[in-house]
Amino acid sequence: MAKPASSAVPAGRDARLPRWLGRRPGREARRFDSVVIRGAGIGALICAARLARSDAFAGRVRIAAPRPRPGRRLVNGCTLRARTLDYAGAALGVPAETLADDLFGAERHKASTWAQDFALAPPHPGALDLRGPTPWMEAEPGRPLAYGLRNGHLVDRLARAVDLEVPFADTLAPSLEACLDQAPGDRPMVLDASHEPLSDVPAPAKPERFVVASQVPLRRRDGAALAAGHSCIGMRHRDGWFDTGVFYPFHDPLTPAADFYGIFYRIVRAGAPGFDKAREIAAMREIDEAFADALGLDPVDAEATRGEAMVPCIPWSDVTTHRADYMDLFRTYSACTPIITGDGMTRGALAGWLCAEALLAGEDPVSATNRSLRRWRSANRNFARGMTGLSRPLGAALRRAPRLVLRPVAAQPHMWARVA
Ligand SMILES: Cc1cc2nc3c(=O)[nH]c(=O)nc-3n(C[C@H](O)[C@H](O)[C@H](O)COP(=O)(O)OP(=O)(O)OC[C@H]3O[C@@H](n4cnc5c(N)ncnc54)[C@H](O)[C@@H]3O)c2cc1C
C-alpha cells in the first residue's frame, strides 16, 4: 500500500474529535510496539489500514482472523452514510472521492440517495395502503446523503488496502492468549473487533434485546411511488412496538439488476413468553416485500441474495471491560442497538480510524473512541426508544406531522453527507 505523507482530519460535528489528532508524538510516548486486530470487518480493516501505513506500526500489525470472502447475499449493513467515506478515506490516506469512485465507478449515481421520504403503513398485514411516501430530508447539491452497497463490497475494498502489508490468520483467534502469541513485537495491543467471544476474557452480560431483520436487493418498476434517487423510511405499528424499514438506491456489481435494496427490522425481547425467532424473521420478510411492492420495488433473485439476522443489542453505557493491553473495539463501536439507524458502518469507520490515531499518538484509545461516539450513541438510543417504549406517542405524532417530527434529524446533515 502506498504511504501518503499525512492523514487529513475530517471536519464535522458528528464526532467529538480529540485535540491531539494529527500531532506526532516522540517514539517514547507510544505504549505499544505492535497491534493484533481480531476481526476482519469494517472497523478492524480501517484500523489496520491506518496503522499499516504509519512508520510506527508498518510491518507490526497482524489480523488474527481469516481474510473475508464475501458472497452475494446481503449480510450486514447496506446503507452507507456518505459521512463514512470521510473516516475511511482518512484511515486509508485517500480522498473520500477516490474511495467512492473505487466502490461505484460509473454507477455511482445509481447508488446515491439525494432525498429521504417517509411512509407509514396501517397496523396490520394485508394490502398495504401507505400514507406517503413524503419527502422530509434533502441533500445539498453535490453531496449525497448516503450510498447503498453490499457490506461485503466495502469490506473487500478495505481488505485489498491492507493485503500486502498486514497478514491475515487462517482462523479467528479463540482467546486473548492466542492473539498475543501472534504479536510481532514485545509490547502488543490487542483490539478485539469481532462479535465472537474470547475464551479467556469474562463474557459480557447476556443480552435481553435483539434486532431481527430481513433485507433483499430490489428493482424499481416504471412509475414506482418511490422516486429514483430517493430513499424511504417506512414504519408499521404492530403489537405495541414499531417494525421499521428503509429502502435505498443501491448498486452491487454482483447483482447488477438491482437498483434499490430494502430492509425491515424490529427490536425484540428474546426471553418474552411465546417468542419465536423464525416467526419474527418471517414477519420481517413479509413486511419488507409487501412494503417494497407498495413503493414499486421488486425483489431481485431473492433466494440467493436475501439476508436475515437476529443480532444482540449492547448496553447503552460506555464499554468498560478493557485492559491496558486489550480493547473490546467491536462492542465500543457497536454502541447499543445494531442496524436500526443505518450508521453501524459509520461508527465502525470512525472508531477504527480514531483508535489507530490514538495508538499512534500515545493516547488512550478507549476514551478517545468512547467520547467520539457519544452523539451517535444517543441518536441510536433515541431511535430505539421511539421504536419501542415511546412508539405510541411517536406514531401519533408521525401520523399528524411527519416532517415536523423528523426535522431534528434533517437538521443534522453532517451526520449523513460527507463534510471533509
Ligand atoms: C442485517 C443488518 C443490517 C444492517 N444495516 C446497516 C445499515 O444499513 N447501515 C450501517 O451502517 N450498518 C448496518 N448494520 C451494521 C453494520 O453491518 C456493522 O455495524 C458494520 O459492518 C460494522 O461492523 P464490522 O463490519 O466492523 O464488524 P462485523 O463483525 O462484520 O459485524 C457486522 C455486524 O454483525 C452483527 N452481528 C452478527 N452476528 C452477531 C452476533 N452473534 N453477535 C453480535 N453481533 C453480530 C453486528 O451487530 C454487526 O452489525 C447492519 C447489520 C446487520 C446485521
Notes on the structure:
This protein is α/β, with parallel strands linked by helices and 420 residues long. It is built from 14 helices and 15 strands. It has helices spanning 42-52, 84-92, 96-104, 108-111, 151-162, 176-181, 277-295, 302-305, 329-334, 344-361, 365-372, 374-387, 391-400, 402-410; strands spanning 34-38, 61-63, 79-81, 112-113, 115-121, 131-138, 146-148, 188-192, 209-220, 230-238, 241-249, 260-269, 297-299, 307-312, 326-327. Strands 5, 6, 9, 10, 11, 12, 13 and 14 form an eight-stranded mixed sheet that branches. The two termini are 22 Å apart. Flavin-adenine dinucleotide is lined by residues 39, 41-44, 76-79, 151, 193-195, 213, 215, 263, 307, 309, 311-312, 334, 338-339, 342-346, 348.
Q: Can you give keywords for this protein?
A:
420 residues; alpha/beta; FAD/NAD(P)-binding domain; D-Amino Acid Oxidase, Chain A, domain 2; 2 domains; eight-stranded mixed sheet; four-stranded parallel sheet
User: Count the strands?
Assistant: 15
Structural class: alpha/beta
Overall pLDDT confidence: 92
The helix count comes to 14
What is the CATH homologous superfamily assignment of the largest domain?
Answer: FAD/NAD(P)-binding domain
Give the proportion of residues in helices.
25-40%
